[in-house]
C-alpha cells in the first residue's frame, strides 16, 4: 500500500480536502473536510475570502492528524485566472478580486487597441474571456498603477496558499497559461506582451511544471500540525487536474462539469488557427505539456444562481425533478452571453432574455430549470459541432467528469441531443487528477497512461445512449 497524498481542491462554490492512497493497483479516496466557498463584497469589489479559505485548508490538515494519518504530500488546485500581488515584505497589496467582478468590463477592447486580437491569440492560444488575468491586470493599471508598480510578487490563488504553507514563491505552468500572458510555444511569460501593456514583469516568478516538489511545510506549521509533508505542484488549475482523470482521451470529447462546463479534447500541441479563434477555443497548458483545446461554457453556475434566487428552497435534485415534470416547456437562452456571468438575479435575466427573443417566458422553478438544462445541452452540442469541424473528424464518445456528472437527466439530454455515447465519471475528477500528479512527483505512478489505467480500474463510469435511437 502506498503512502497518503492529500488533495486540496477548491472550486467557486465549495472546497474539499481528499486523502488518496493506492492499494492493489486501485486508488482509494477519503473525504476529510468540505467547506463552502463564495464571492464576498470587499472594498467595492467581488472578492474571494482567501484568509478564510486558508483556515479551512489548515482545519482539513489537522483533521488528518486527528485520524492518525500523516500524509506524505499535499497539492492544491483551485479555479484559474485570479491572483494576488505582494510587496517587498510579502504583504498583500491587493484583495483576491474574483473574476466575476465587473472591473474588467471594456478592458478587452482597450487591450486590443495595443495588441491586435489575432496576435494575442496566435501567441498565447487562449480563449477570449473578459475575466482573463491579462484584462484584470490591465484594469488594475487603469485604477491603481502605483500598486502594480510596487508589486514584487504575482501569485495565483493556489500559489499564494503554497507560499503560506512553505514560504516559497513560484508560478505554476497550467494556471499561468490561463492568464493569457504565457506564450503557447515557449511556455514562458511573454515579456513582449507585458512590455506592450506596461505591466511590471519583475513581479512574475519562474514557471514550474506540475509534478514539481515545491518544498516542505514552514517551521511554524510543522509545529502547529505536529508533522511535516512535501508540498507538490499538481496541475494547480482545477480543470488541468480534472482532465487528467478522463479515463479515455482517444476519440473522446470531455466535459468537465461544475460551476463551469469545460468542453474539449486533449492535444499534444496548441491549435492557434483562425477557425479556433473564430469559435473562441482555448489551448490551456496541461500536465506533460498536453494542451486542453476547449471552450468555457457557463455551466452549472446558472442553476446554482437560480437555486440561490429561490432562497435555497429547492435542492439541486429537486430542481432536476421539477424540470423533468416540464417536458412540454421549451425556451433556449444563449448561455455564452456575458449577461449571465453575474446578473443581479439569474431568474429575472433568463426571463428577460426569453421575452426579448420572443420565446415562451419560463414562470415556475421547473420551467426555469428546464430552460437552463436545455440551453446547456444546446450549447454543448454547438461546441461539439465546432470541435468536429476543426478536427475534421467524428468523436463517438463524450466523457462527463466532475460533480456535474451526477446529473442523470443532463447526461441523458447530452446523449439525446448529440447522438453520442455519454460516459459519466469520475465524480471527484479534479481531486483524483491532483492526487495522481502527486504520486507521479513521488515516483509511485510513472506515466499519465499508468495514472489513467489506475483511474479506470478504480472508479465507476456510467454509460448513457440516445434514447430515441433503436438497436
Ligand atoms: C473551472 C475554472 C475554469 C476557468 C474558470 C475561471 O473551475 O477553473 O477552467 O476558466 O474556472 O477560473
From TrEMBL:
Domain spans labelled Carbohydrate kinase FGGY N-terminal: 4-244
Organism in which the protein naturally occurs: Metabacillus halosaccharovorans
Involved pathway(s): Carbohydrate degradation; L-rhamnose degradation; glycerone phosphate from L-rhamnose: step 2/3
Family: Belongs to the FGGY kinase family. Belongs to the rhamnulokinase family.
InterPro entries, alphabetized: ATPase_NBD, Carb_kinase_FGGY, FGGY_C, FGGY_N, Rhamnulokinase
Binding site for ATP: 12-16, 259, 304, 403
Keywords: ATP-binding, Disulfide bond, Kinase, Magnesium, Nucleotide-binding, Rhamnose metabolism, Transferase
Active-site residues, as the UniProt record annotates them: 238 (proton acceptor)
CDD domains for this protein: ASKHA_NBD_FGGY_RhaB-like
Protein name: Rhamnulokinase
EC identifiers of the protein: 2.7.1.5
Cofactor(s) named in the record: Mg(2+)
Gene this chain is encoded by: rhaB
Function: Involved in the catabolism of L-rhamnose (6-deoxy-L-mannose). Catalyzes the transfer of the gamma-phosphate group from ATP to the 1-hydroxyl group of L-rhamnulose to yield L-rhamnulose 1-phosphate.
Claim: Iron is one of the keywords in the record: no
Annotated ranges, domain Carbohydrate kinase FGGY C-terminal: 254-441
PANTHER family to which the protein is assigned, alphabetical: L-RHAMNULOKINASE, SUGAR KINASE
Binding site for substrate: 80, 237-239, 296
Catalytic activity of the protein: L-rhamnulose + ATP = L-rhamnulose 1-phosphate + ADP + H(+)
GO MF annotations, alphabetized: rhamnulokinase activity
Amino acid at each position: 500500500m502506498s503512502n497518503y497524498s492529500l488533495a486540496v481542491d477548491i472550486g467557486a462554490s465549495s472546497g474539499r480536502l481528499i486523502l488518496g492512497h493506492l492499494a492493489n493497483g486501485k486508488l482509494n479516496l477519503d473525504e476529510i473536510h468540505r467547506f463552502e466557498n463564495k464571492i464576498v463584497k470587499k472594498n467595492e469589489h467581488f472578492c474571494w475570502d482567501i484568509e478564510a479559505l486558508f483556515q479551512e485548508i489548515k482545519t482539513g490538515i489537522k483533521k488528518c492528524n486527528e485520524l492518525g494519518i500523516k500524509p506524505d504530500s499535499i497539492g492544491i488546485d483551485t479555479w484559474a485566472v485570479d491572483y494576488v500581488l505582494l510587496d517587498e515584505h510579502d504583504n498583500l497589496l491587493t484583495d483576491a478580486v474574483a473574476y466575476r467582478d465587473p472591473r474588467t468590463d471594456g478592458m478587452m477592447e482597450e487591450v486590443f487597441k495595443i495588441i491586435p486580437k489575432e496576435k494575442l491569440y496566435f501567441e498565447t492560444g487562449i480563449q477570449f474571456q473578459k475575466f482573463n488575468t491579462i484584462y484584470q491586470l490591465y484594469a488594475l493599471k487603469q485604477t491603481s498603477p502605483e500598486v502594480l508598480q510596487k508589486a514584487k510578487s504575482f501569485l495565483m490563488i493556489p500559489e499564494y496558499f503554497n507560499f503560506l504553507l512553505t514560504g516559497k514563491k513560484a508560478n505554476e505552468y497550467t494556471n499561468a497559461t490561463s492568464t493569457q500572458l504565457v506564450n503557447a510555444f515557449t511556455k514562458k511569460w511573454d515579456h513582449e506582451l507585458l512590455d506592450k501593456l506596461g505591466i511590471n514583469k519583475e513581479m512574475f516568478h519562474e514557471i514550474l511544471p506540475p509534478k514539481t516538489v515545491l518544498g516542505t511545510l514552514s517551521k511554524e506549521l510543522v509545529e502547529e500540525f505536529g508533522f511535516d509533508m512535501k508540498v507538490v505542484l499538481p496541475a494547480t488549475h482545477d480543470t488541468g487536474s480534472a482532465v487528467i482523470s478522463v479515463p479515455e482521451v482517444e476519440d473522446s470529447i470531455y466535459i468537465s462539469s461544475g460551476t463551469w462546463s469545460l468542453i474539449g479534447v486533449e492535444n499534444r500541441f496548441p491549435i492557434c488557427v483562425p477557425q479556433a479563434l473564430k469559435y473562441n477555443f482555448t489551448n490551456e497548458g496541461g500536465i506533460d505539456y498536453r494542451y486542453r483545446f476547449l471552450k468555457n461554457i457557463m455551466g452549472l453556475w446558472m442553476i446554482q444562481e437560480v437555486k440561490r434566487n429561490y432562497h435555497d428552497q429547492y435542492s439541486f435534485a429537486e430542481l432536476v425533478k421539477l424540470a423533468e415534470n416540464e417536458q412540454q416547456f421549451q425556451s433556449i437562452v444563449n448561455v455564452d452571453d456575458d449577461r449571465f456571468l453575474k446578473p443581479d438575479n439569474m431568474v429575472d435575466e433568463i426571463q428577460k432574455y426569453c421575452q426579448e427573443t420572443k420565446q415562451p417566458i419560463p414562470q415556475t422553478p421547473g420551467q426555469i430549470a428546464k430552460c437552463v438544462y436545455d440551453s446547456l445541452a444546446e450549447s454543448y452540442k454547438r461546441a461539439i459541432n465546432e470541435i468536429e469541424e476543426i478536427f475534421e473528424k467524428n468523436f463517438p464518445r463524450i466523457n462527463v467528469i466532475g460533480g456535474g456528472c451526477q446529473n442523470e437527466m443532463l447526461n441523458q439530454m447530452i446523449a439525446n441531443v448529440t447522438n453520442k455515447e455519454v460516459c459519466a465519471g469520475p465524480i471527484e475528477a479534479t481531486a483524483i487528477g491532483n492526487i495522481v500528479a502527486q504520486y507521479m512527483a513521488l515516483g509511485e505512478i510513472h506515466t499519465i497512461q499508468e495514472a489513467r489505467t489506475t483511474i479506470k480500474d478504480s472508479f465507476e463510469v456510467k454509460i448513457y445512449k440516445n434514447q430515441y435511437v433503436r438497436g
